[in-house]
Structure formats: C-alpha cells, structure tokens
Amino acid sequence: MQIDLRLIEAFALVMRNGSLTRAEEVSGISKATLSRQIMSLEQTLGATLMTRRARGVVPTEPGRVFFAHCEEMLADLAGRIETARVQMQELDSGVTGTLNILADSVFSTAFVCHVTRLFRERYPNVECRMDIAWGGNLPDVSDMDCYVCAEPPDLPNVVAKLLGRISHGLYASPAYLQRRGIPVTPLDISRHDSIILGESQGASEKTMLHSDRHSQPYVPKCSVATNDYWVMKSFCLDGTGIALLPDFFARPEVTRRTLVPVLPNWKPERTRIYCAYQQQRYKTRKLKDFVDLMTTSVRHMDSYNQYVGFPSVLRTS
C-alpha cells in the first residue's frame, strides 16, 4: 500500500491542533484542502480516523492508533532528512573518536538512545558509550563528555544547557483503580497507595498540583519508595499504587491501556531537562553537534519512547 506523505502530514497536523480551523491558522493550508486530504487517507486505509464536531475533531480508536504511528514516523523522517543533509556537508569532516554520554535512567532508552542513533548515522566513525546515572548521589562527570539529567551538577567549569521542559502526571493501572476506586480530587491521593521517587518521607512535600484555576499540594501515602522511574512504572503496572511519572515515559502504556491517567487535569510544574558538559570539552565538534541534535530532538520526545511495560502475571502450579 502506497500512501501520499502529504495525507499523513495533514492528518497529524489536524490531530495536533484539535480542529481544522486551528490547523489552517497554523499551517496556512485551507480547511477544505485538509478535509479532502484526510478523507482520502481514510479511504486508502479503509477506516474512519476522526469524527468532525462543531468545536473540533475527535479521533476514533483507529485514529488514535494511527496517530501514534504517524508521530513516530514523521519525527523519524525529519531526523533522517537532517542526518542526510549533515552527511552530505560532512563527507570530508573526518570527525572521529569517542563520545562518552551519561544519562539519568528515565531519559536513557526513551530519549538519549534515539538521539545517539541519529548521531551515529551522521558520524559513523565516532564510537559512542552511554552510562546510566543511578540514585541521588552526584555522578562523576569528569570522564564524561555530557550528562543528560533533570538536576545538573553544580561544579566549576560545568555548563548546564537547558534542552526543554517535560510534563508529569499521575498514573495507575486499571486493576488498581478497579480495586481502590478513582480519585476525584488531589486530596483523595492521601487515601491511596503511592509509589514515590526518592525517600519515603518528605519526597513530595514541595510538589503542588495545578488545575486551570486552583492548586493543591501533592500528599501521597507511600507504599513503595525507589530511586528509579523504571522501577516506579513497574510497580504501577502491577497495581501497587499511583505514581507521578513523566508523561512521555508513560505514553506507550497509556496507548495500550495498561496504565490510566489519574486526575488528568491536575499537573505539577514542568520539569527541566538539561545537558551538562565541561566547558572545555564543548570545543569539540562532535559534542557541539550532539548537544544541538538533542536540543532539536527534545520537542519530539513523546514519539521516541517505544519501550512498553506490561503487568506481571501471577502463575500458580
């Protein structure tokens, strides 16, 4: 099956903006053209992708599934086009050596691995090594070219470049919510089991949840505490409790309905993601280009995470 890329781009544009009117304002493409392109795509796929309503469009179940693949495909295509452009310009650059990367675990597979793959496509003669920073202790960055993290180290001659901001949300498994009920307000969280990042006491004292008009403190009742987001998500999938997770990190499980957003209209402040590096190392071309690639790629982070967790299954003999 051959599908015109313009049809996919039109569908993704309308989905991202929520309506044909807003998509027209953003892109300059008329609503009539966008509507015809989406109808043509639906005919090609043999499925209705969205329902048109007075206040916008609502994706159907096939539309949500197809949109997830569209975002991944378009982001990958944009990265490959940029890679091709750089490769043509850098055929004789001779960039070689090793690039040592340190990353917080939550950004490793979901973001840094993807960027590293794109970087290696540009510079096949550069060997990349990625290590994971575990726990809350200050990592040793002396032998690293860069450190991708939420809290950069406060050290002399270390520059922390802000890459972007990521949103978090509360999540739980359908089994847990069926067993314990669905929280209606942030105050209900204190009556539920929670999986906490950091120490069990005081880890979330300063976290506030915000809606459009109100703010409430996030006061979880700790059932499990850990220093790793992957462990948090595993406990969450197994129905241990409610967890405050990065939205991009939970997206694959939400798509497959193994995790469910809890209080989706209540969010904490966005968390910053940094790339920290020693000032003198930034003079090398390979590090400059790697940091620039991360800066460009971070806006598409939601589409990079393809590592899906599933709840464990208890087997008895």
UniProtKB/TrEMBL annotation:
Residue ranges of every copy of the HTH lysR-type domain listed in the record: 3-60
Keyword terms, alphabetized: DNA-binding, Transcription, Transcription regulation
PANTHER family, A to Z: HTH-TYPE TRANSCRIPTIONAL REGULATOR, TRANSCRIPTIONAL REGULATOR-RELATED
InterPro entries: LysR-type_TF_proteobact-type, LysR_HTH_N, LysR_subst-bd, WH-like_DNA-bd_sf, WH_DNA-bd_sf
Family, similarity comment: Belongs to the LysR transcriptional regulatory family.
PROSITE patterns reported in the protein's UniProt record: HTH_LYSR (PS50931)
GO biological process: DNA-templated transcription
Keyword Glycosyltransferase applies: no
Name the UniProt record assigns to this protein: DNA-binding transcriptional LysR family regulator
Classification via SUPFAM superfamilies: Periplasmic binding protein-like II, Winged helix' DNA-binding domain
Keyword Transcription on entry: yes
GO molecular function annotations of the record: DNA-binding transcription factor activity; sequence-specific DNA binding
Species this protein is from: Pseudoduganella lurida
Signal peptide residue numbers: none
